[in-house]
Write a structure and sequence with these properties.
TIM Barrel, five-stranded parallel β-sheet, 17 strands, 16% strand, binds iron/sulfur cluster, Rossmann fold, 3 domains, five-stranded mixed β-sheet
């Protein structure tokens, strides 16, 4: 059970020595309760207190790390049921299923397609994270060939799928440098899989059809010494799977039930490709650590990655770009000046449309605390005064030989006051960013 700040304080030395960087032990205890500092910052905590506090400061859902380098995948370590309570920390990993019955040519093609599922959106990389290789053939040489091809053809995390401990052992030998996820331990094979998991320090998926069976399996794995586990209640329909994952999350967070204090895994089972994508988005929202899909068409994957990016942003901190001057294309002192807000989505949409228009322009983003144009205007964060101040201070006056600024069409109401405040001639631009290319091309005609 997590301790409160006061509960933690009682176990600290209470000398207020400040060695931890906080003015008092109580201040440190509060930060520790909020999981913002680690216990090792206090050098004087006693061994007994350390033991008591170590378990109290463990995350309610364990962090599991797979893969290596830039493509490392971390799942778990979530602290809330609802995003608005705080935020979700580790975005669900999106995995793609490949079967070892694919021919070498089909496998190569599939891996090329997976490589392309790597996009940039609002300045961030959004991509798939894992390749699951299923031993459908039950043939050791085919499984090995498929794993070798995947190891060579992708830098993503890999999940070998077999219930045969002998085949799993060979797979782990092959994949050990890639920190793979073992799929799967069942009631029938958990002892052998546990041995492999410990020998290779590889996280292991515990798979059972009901929550009761899963509880018993995880207890058995813990008894065998396995600590890095991912929970799976098998392929089910959407409603049943959603129920299982919600119960697991609720029990881990609200009841401090440590047996379920691990991230979950879900396979999509949608009957058609549209349904599969919708199912995956549902699991991103509630509460899969990893989702494994069969479909890999970009039109299926991109909306899932976009939804994931939105769900895993901090609801109290909109994605924002730096408030400054952005030069799009080969600008000169005659280039137009466009102002907008510093909400990432707004900026990148405007940037893309200016590029599409092929008319070099300056885009000046005002600090609107990451709000979009209309929201910022309604909240008094994008006003004639704030725009005038930005134009005065951002350095744009030194870059252009004119004093003409384009404002978003939605805030045309600001134009008169802005001219008065800034001394710049205001032109009202289009309401939607999609109108920018034509607008810029016709400017001055
Ligand atoms: Fe208290 Fe330890 Fe911080 Fe000193 S270092 S103020 S004893 S918590």
């Amino acid at each position: 059970m997590a301790l409160s700040g006061l509960g933690i304080y009682k176990l600290l030395p209470k000398t207020n020595c400040k060695k931890c960087g906080f003015p008092t032990c109580l201040a440190f205890a509060m930060q520790l309760a909020a999981k913002k500092v680690s216990l090792d910052k206090c050098p004087d905590v006693s061994a007994d207190s350390k033991k008591a506090l170590a378990s109290a400061s463990e995350p309610p859902i364990k962090l599991i790390t797979l893969g290596k380098g830039d493509d490392k995948l971390e799942v778990g370590n979530e602290t809330v049921l609802f995003r608005h309570e705080e935020k979700f920390y580790h975005p669900s990993g999106i995995g793609l299923l490949l079967e070892d019955t694919l021919s070498a040519e089909e496998m190569g093609k599939a891996l090329e397609e997976i490589k392309k599922l790597d996009f940039e959106r609002v300045g961030q990389r959004i991509n798939v994270n894992l390749v699951a290789v299923s031993c459908k053939s039950k043939d050791a040489s085919k499984f090995e060939a498929a794993l070798k091809a995947v190891l060579a053809g992708t830098s993503l995390a890999i999940m070998p799928m077999t219930e045969d401990a002998g085949l799993m052992g060979k797979a782990l030998e092959l994949l050990k440098e890639r920190a793979p996820l073992m799929y799967r331990a069942t009631n029938a094979n958990f002892k052998d899989m546990a041995k492999l998991s410990k020998a290779f320090s590889a996280p292991l998926v515990a798979n059972a059809g009901t929550l009761e069976e899963l509880e018993s399996l995880v207890k058995n794995l813990n008894t065998e010494g396995v600590r890095d586990i991912v929970l799976d209640t098998g392929e089910k329909n959407l409603a049943e799977k959603l129920w299982d994952m919600t119960e697991i999350r609720r029990l881990a967070l609200k009841k401090a039930f440590r047996i379920f204090g691990y991230p979950t895994l879900a396979f999509t089972g949608g009957e058609n490709t549209f349904q599969e994508a919708a199912e995956a988005v549902t699991y991103v929202a509630k509460y899969a650590g990893i989702i494994v899909m069969k479909g890999r068409a970009p039109w299926q994957i991109l909306p899932i990655l976009t939804a994931r990016q939105n769900i895993y942003t901090d609801p109290q901190k909109p994605l924002q770009v730096e408030a400054k001057i952005y030069e799009i294309g080969k600008v000169t002192d005659k280039s137009p000046v466009i102002v907008t807000t510093n909400f990432s989505l707004t900026y990148y949409t405007v940037e893309a449309e200016v590029e599409a228009g092929k008319v070099p322009a300056y885009v000046v983003t005002c600090d609107s605390e990451g709000m979009s144009v209309l929201t910022a205007w309604a909240a008094d964060k994008f006003t004639a005064e704030s725009i005038a101040k930005t134009l005065e201070k951002c350095g744009i006056k030194e870059k252009v030989s004119h004093k003409q600024v384009i404002i978003p069409g939605y805030v045309s109401v600001l134009s008169g006051k802005l001219e008065e405040e800034s001394g710049w001639k205001v032109t009202v631009g289009p309401r939607e960013a999609s109108g920018i290319p034509a607008f810029l091309r016709n400017l001055g005609k």
